Amino acid sequence: MAASSPHLSQLVNPLVSVDQLASSGSQLDGVPSDLESSCIYAGAQLMQIAGILLRLPQDIIAQAIVIFSRFWIGSDGGSLREFGVKDVSLASIYLMVKLSAYPKAPRSVINVFGYLDSFHSTLGDLKGHVDTNNPESYYVSEGTYVAQRAQLTKMETIILKVLGFQTHVALPYNICINYLQALDVFVDHETASHLAKRAFAHLNSALLSPQLLYLTHQPPALATAAIYLSAKETGVKLPDAEWWEVFDTDREELGFLVVAMISMEDFVKEENVKWENRKAPSTLIEMENELERKATANGHH
Amino acid sequence: MASTPAATPAATPKTAIKPLDRTFHGSTSIGSYELEQKVGEGTFGEVYRAKSRKDGEVYALKRILMHNEKDGFPITALREIKLLKMLSHVNIIRLEEMAVEREKGTRKKATLYMVTPYMDHDLSGLLDNRDVHLQVPHVKSYMLQLLRGLKYLHNSHILHRDMKAANLLIDNKGILKIADFGLARHYDEDVPKPGQGGGEAKRDYTTLVVTRWYRPPELLLQLRRYTTAIDMWGAGCVFGEMFKKKPILTGKSDLNQAEIIFELVGSPNDNNMPGWHTLPGCDGVRAWDPQPGNLDKVFGQYGDDTVSLMRQLLKLDWRKRINAIDALKHPYFTNHPLPSRPEDIPWFASSHELDRRNGRDGRGPGQAPPPAPAGGTVGGGPNAEGWAGKGPPNGSSWEGNGRNSRQPPGSSHPPNRAYESRIPNEIRLPNETRVPKAGPDGRGAPPPPPRRQPWQTDAPPVRSASHLPPAPPEGSRHPLPPRPDPFIPRDPHSRDSSHAPRESSHPPRDTRPPRDRDPHRKPANLDSYVPSYSTGGRRDDRRDDRRDDCRSAEREDRYRPSSRDGRRGSRDEGRRRLNYDDVDNPRSRDDRSDTGGRDRPRDERPRDRDHRRSRTRSPARERTREREREKEHRDNRDVYRR
Ligand SMILES: Nc1ncnc2c1ncn2[C@@H]1O[C@H](COP(=O)(O)OP(=O)(O)OP(=O)(O)O)[C@@H](O)[C@H]1O
Ligand SMILES: [Mg+2]
Q1: Which Gene Ontology BP annotations are present (chain A) (predicted)?
Q2: What is the per-residue pLDDT across B337-388, written as a single tens digit (0 to 9) for each?
Q3: Distance CA B12, CA A227 (A)
Q4: Which residues are CB-contacts of B232 (< 8 A; sequence separation ≥ 6)?
Q5: SS3 assignment, position B452
Q6: Checking DSSP bridges between strand B97-101 and strand B28-29, what pairing results, if any?
């Protein structure tokens, strides 16, 4: 049982097993894997935006996204036909925020998600998507609120159970700064801060990766890859030696992560095209509709 | 995602990889435990002794009460589970798993239990057992184990923040384990280093921690940048308690707590507590009668090395207070008699802090001292003769005096019982609780509020006191004092203006001066785990209400002996309050600004009962089962799911 080896350093994450990656509740329930990826990506993206609107520090948003991503993986993970993406993302944010130094009322979180609901899409450029002059479109009535809060508290417990009550998430951001310092890149501040920003941007994007990088790799490897890639992009010269070895990352892993981080751009573009002007299903009903639509389009009926 | 090469997880060889652990998934059902009797009552609910049907072992099941359905899963439990899952040490209680109780056929929410190995005693209960006489080697052994646990905790960047005898569990093999991580938190500073005490902290933490009798002077004086040294102070108190068989510093108020501390170890000056005069002070009091301290007198009989270690642990200067690493090297542990090996400590009949309370059931206040606690008369066990028997053990007389109840330090005050038996000097009705009222001099006894839980923010209390078992009365030998009071006086009307001074128009509710007015109390980057929302409107009123309840709850249990959880309240209110009213966070500002006017429930009267109806899960159920079947079929090597 879990407790037989409970020791878990605060700097280390539990990672998903090969088995857990091989399948998921959603796939077992007949959700095509590309649709699954879209939904989870959209959910994570929604959380990122909601987190910003809630004025949360990025590390809390990141932890919430990791929790959210963990929820869906593995054959005993949550299924998209059992739980709506929106409910899970909302509850994940609420849960991690509760554990943080920036607690928010359920009402705040629900309001923000209600506001984002009024967008035609939460992907791509958000500006054109909302009619800010029409508060009616995102007003959360008392009745709706009460129902959603009930759903939220219920979902919170489900998430906890699915995750085996493991809410610890280690992140690569601090490590990234430490490594940059160790690599002596801060001598020249201009380029260094550019490099650091770039690296953080990659770490943030990687949160949304369909390859679930935060679930498959430890923070040091993520930080190392982000630094490697950003250094290449900004033309900062790093030591010739295999410096990543010092940071617990071997060449193979580094290579994999760098490629995965580079591929984010194309993935996001594709998603934006795929879901232009509409949203990936975020509720159970939307999911069923989407599955039906797909089935019809494929001429199964 | 499915396109991910599955080989990646294996690619980090240097860090121990733990698979995403879902062992708790679909957690063990409560059915695999045979519930026996209740052994403890905590903030979250009761602790039961239970036998596992799987392995026949005995476990303790702590029920997690869903206090506040509105806020969801209780934060203290969440935190405790999170921390316990990260810790692994012989002197720290181990979280085995979570057990789920689902009442069939009802829509009731599932109840969750934290499962830990059953421990026969908590130290408080043990010491209170008249038939138990610890000998020096046993005290040394417990102390050693406590310090080892603390060393591990502190080295893992964790502050316990609720050191006290009742939170130290002891099994029948003599092993001591630190329990109750409901107030613990991650410590952002450097870990203690040999010879350097607790070091210094760089950030602020909430001072609303630690049960009063175990609260160190720097916390009483409102130091926010405290360190691991706060736990060391508690260890010192526990050390003394093992000799005296009762808490050694039993202040009746925070101020009195400070006074009796200074009586014992001397009053603060620039030598023994540099920087003391720059601290906000205790209830506004910042000057203290000069006192030389009488530690020698009080503990001298137990030997010089005892006094020496005690002095190190009860050092006023938190920077110099000995850390666990160094305390373990203190000669006390290498001087004769040597610490016993845990397994050599005799077996005692099980005793828990709750026993004391239950043992006094039905008695009024101010009555004779309690009879031997429930477990007390059993005594015996393999080594019973000689020292679990009726008299002091052969050849150990050091503890003799303790029996005669020498008054604890600070004996200018009446012994506990005297104030326990005081009665309310004013009765207040429920609706009045929001109106701050203090005693005539601002320090007198506050009237007891109705017994409302802090989380009961509106509507009639869901769990009204009358549905609960009768209150254990006051008068037990040492009911614990409250945890600290996180009250933030606020003027609900100024809520919308972030510039308005928060509680300007309110006189302090408490008998204490409103510490919270002190700007020091609210820097922006404080720690808090707790949702304490200020969303405006009525809700705020209720929150104040809640706060008020908790504030006075500490008095209540002193002055109203018949209240349901008398002592329990006194021990727990602090935590409850902390749960919901932890002052250390920036959100009070945040929430007000971030979602603006929308973020204001105008009325939350409709209680969310209906969430229960959404628990029809049969289709999902079916799918789950299907899935499980398929999965088992496909792959039964799956480790994380056993
Ligand atoms: N594993 C255990 N074995 C035996 N008794 C236990 C165990 N865990 C807890 N208890 C008993 O239950 C009491 C309360 O447990 P604990 O301190 O963990 O709960 P809590 O809710 O944090 O309580 P409180 O707030 O009152 O300190 C303990 O003092 C102890 O007597
Ligand atoms: Mg406790």
Answers
A1: regulation of transcription by RNA polymerase II
A2: 999 998 888 877 777 877 766 653 333 333 332 222 232 222 222 332 222 2
A3: 17
A4: B150, B198, B313, B321, B322, B323, B324, B327
A5: coil
A6: parallel
Ligand 1 centre and the CA of B44: distance in Å? 10
Contacts of B327 (CB under 8 A, 6+ apart): B147, B232, B235, B309, B312, B313
Judge if A19-169 and A173-272 fold alike in CATH terms: yes
Interchain CB contact of B581 with A (< 8 Å): no
What is the second-level CATH architecture of the domain A173-272?
Orthogonal Bundle (1.10)
User: Complex ipTM, two decimals?
Assistant: 0.87
Q: How far is the CA of A125 from the centre of ligand 2 (A)?
A: 51
SS3 state of residue B581: helix
Sketch out chain B's domains with CATH numbers. 26-642 (1.10.510.10)
Domain ranges for chain A, please list them: 19-169, 173-272
**Catalytic pick among B122, B128, B131, B162:** B162
Tell me which residue in A143, A164, A210 faces B21 most closely, judged by beta carbons.
A164
- Alpha carbon A230 to chain centroid, angstroms: 21
3-state secondary structure at position A187: helix
What 3 state SS string does B493-540 have? Answer: HHCCCCCCCCCCCCCCCCCCCCHHHCHHHCCCCCCCCCCCCCCCHHHH
Which letter, b or e, does each residue of A11-42 get, where b requires 16 or more Cβ atoms within 10 Å of its Cβ? ebbbbbbebbbbbbbbbbbebeeebbbbbbbb
Higher local confidence (pLDDT), B475 or B447:
B475
Residue B62 assigned ligand-binding role: yes
Q: Which chain A residue has the Cα nearest residue B531?
A: A103
**pLDDT tens for each residue of A175-202:** 999 999 888 887 777 788 889 999 999 9
The closest alpha carbon to A261, from A192, A193, A211, A196, belongs to A211
B48 — phi, psi (to 5°)?
Answer: -115, 150
Biggest alpha carbon distance in chain B?
77
What would the 3-class secondary structure string for B268-307 be?
Answer: CCCCCCCCHHHCCCECCECCCCCCCCCHHHHHHHHCHHHH
- Structure token digits, residue A278: 């509409």
Backbone angles phi, psi at B616, to 5 degrees: -70, 115
Active site annotation includes B162: yes
Q: Which residues pair with B92 in a beta bridge?
A: B178
Integer Cα distance of A116 and A124 in angstroms: 13
Nearest to B193 by CA among B319, B283, B308, B301: B319
Listed residue (B573, B570, B548) closest to B561, CA to CA? B570
Q: Is the CB of B60 under 6 A from ligand 1?
A: yes
Cis peptide leading into residue B337 (ω within 30°): yes
B58: left (phi over 0), alpha (psi -120 to 50) or beta: beta
Give the residue among B581, B586, B583 at the shortest CA–CA distance from B524: B586
pLDDT in tens, B480-497: 555 554 333 333 343 333
Q: Residue A207 in contact with residue A96, Cβ under 8 Å?
A: no
Contacts of A99 in chain B (CB under 8 A): 75, 78-79, 82, 529
The three-state secondary structure class of B85 is helix
Backbone angles phi, psi at B359, to 5 degrees: -60, -20
* Domain boundaries A19-169, corresponding CATH code: 1.10.472.10
Tell me B351's DSSP state.
B
Please give the DSSP secondary-structure letter assigned to residue A73: B
Closest to B607 measured CA to CA, from B437, B456, B484, B495: B456
pLDDT more than 90, % of chain A: 64
Report residue B164 as tokens: 């006290």
Ligand that lies nearest to the alpha carbon of residue B480, given by its number in the listed order:
1
> Ligand 1, atom 10: nearest CA belongs to which residue?
B40
